[in-house]
Structures are given as structure tokens and as C-alpha cells.
Design goal:
This protein is α/β, with parallel strands linked by helices. It folds into three domains: about 110 residues, Nucleotidyltransferase, domain 5 (2-Layer Sandwich), CATH 3.30.420; about 100 residues, no CATH class; about 120 residues, no CATH class. A hairpin with a 4-residue loop joins β1 and β2.
Amino acid sequence: MMTDQPALQVTAGVDTHADMHVAAVLDHLGRELGHRQFDTTTAGDLELHAWIAGHGPIDRVGVEGTGMYGAGLTRMLTARGVTVVEVDRPDRKARRFQGKSDPVDAYAAARAAQSGRAAGTPKTRTGNVEMIRMLHVARGGAVKSKTIAWNELKALIKTAPAPLREQLRDLDGAALLDRCVGLRAARGPAPHHGPHAKRRRPGMLADPTAACKRALAVLAHRIHALQDEIADLDDDLRPLVEQTAPTLLGLFGVGLDVAARLLAAVGDNPERLRSEAAFAHLCGVAPIPASSGKTNRHRLNRGGDRSANHALYTIVMSRLRYDERTQAYKTKRAAQQKSNKDIIRCLKRYIAREVHHAILTDLGVASTSEQP
């Protein structure tokens, strides 16, 4: 008597782009079943899912760029119960031997997911942490723009005509901004406008001093506007961070910006990180062996999420300045002939363990960390 055999599962890979995705499908033995291109729209993502499912039950889908071009596709597939695996792009050696094309990359993503070489769980991007990340991106851009504007303003003062430079050289902060905002540039007669002029322009600037005053006033207004923008974003960020991560915010040296950076690195689903060691690796603070011969040492890790690494560095610097326990630890390690870089590396590793536990507590995930 014949019985119905269950359909064999297939594995897919997706090479993501801004305007289109390329999907490829493998059978259970790794044989290529086909590839196809889809638009990066809601309809295109649904069509991609239906096309993959048409080959059989889906085991998993490996997606390149789940945090960028593939974010929307990842959300859609996850919402439909599909297991999505985050796939890194092929290394240079593999591309040198296999070539480079979108179908080749899609098949490579599928093989990485099928073999287990790629097993990372992408961020869900559906909760408070994703909201915090988005607002922090806007805030970070405003902070960088403010820093650039300040540097430009101070550079102009250093090269300003002597009388103006003498007025401003001893001022700083709010006093300098207020003085620059009030500068008025002398102008000559208004230039002649033709019949097709779109708007009336004021008179031409009279001299270099007038041009410098005009530039300083513009930069000062820009800095004021950016300060207001940052304050508004902080007003939106603060209640979100306080509600999402009160334990993290309670740690010594953790402020609004640092907490937002660390939460963005982890995502809304911190259970995707298997242990606090995995979190340390994500933040680039897992020690890397650098031993040779009779020398036994570790070195700094230059990989990982650099924004999260910077957040841990900020905590270390704050504790070294104000926390007595951290200062005592530095003194003890310095007596053991450890360099400042090694001491900071060790502190970041210890703090990563503390931060990981706090984030798991705040997001309601059972800790799997192994305590030393």
C-alpha cells in the first residue's frame, strides 16, 4: 500500500539591495532549484515568500543585510513563521575563486544557512529598542553637526580681522554664542536686479569683517537650532529608555546616550545572544590571544559594534574618574606591570558582563551567563 511521503524542506538565500532582492533556493541535498529577482516593495516581498514556498516547506532563509536593505523582508518573513538566519557577505577569498554576481551571492547565503555556518538570529526591530535606535540615529547626526559647527565657528574667530577677534577670543559657550548671534554685518548699496530676479537681495557685504560677522552669526544660529533639536530628541528618548531599561540606567556611568547605544546593539530580542561572552564579542571587548613563545598576553579587539564599544569605553572613563573601586583596580593592575590599554580592555570586559545582565533583567530574559 502506497503512503504519502512528506514534502522535503528547502533552504533559501537572499542577496538584498536597495531596489531589488535576488532569491535562490536549494533542495535538502543542496542542489540548486532556481533563482529569481523581486522588487523591494511589500508586494515584492510577499511574492518572494510565495515563490520560495512554491518549492516546498521552508526550512530557513539566509538573508544578507538584515539590518539594512533586508530589514523589511526579515520582518515580513519572521511574522509568517519563517526561520531567518543572518548571513555575512562572502569573504574576499571566496569571491576571488567563485566570482561575484547577485545569484552567486544568493546561493552562497542559502548554503551558509543550510550548512549552519551562518546561524545568527537577526534583530526583530519591532519594539521599544528599535524606537530608541531610530531616535538615537537622529540625535547622533545632530550632535555631529553641532560639533562641526562649533569647530567652524572657533576656526573663523582665530582667523578673523584683529578688532573682531579681540572682541570674541576670551568668550566661550553660551556667552560666545549670544555675542555671535547679535553680530550685524555692514552692507553696501543693493545690487541692480534684472526684470527676471526671483527675490530681492540685500546690499553686498562691505568688507572681510562684515563677511566674518555674517558667517559667525549664521553658525551661531545653526548651533542654537541644533541644541534645540537635540533637547527635543532627548525629551522623546528619555521616557523610552527609562521605561525599557531602568536597571541599565542605574549602573554607574550609564547615561541616556550610553544606554541607547548599548540597547541598539542588542536589539529587542537579546535572547539571540547565547551568553554574556557573545555580548562581549558583539561589543568588540572579547580578548584576543596575542601570545608567542614565552610571551602570554591578550590584545584589544578591533572588531564588533564600535558604537557599543564606545559606550563601554565611556563607562570605563567615568568610573576611572569617579568610582573608588575602579580606581583601586587600576592601581592594582598597574602594579602588575599592565599598560593602560590592557587595564581599559579588562575593565570593558568586566563591564560588558554587568551590562549584559542588566539588559537581560530589563527585557525580561532569563540570564544564561556563566559567572566567573
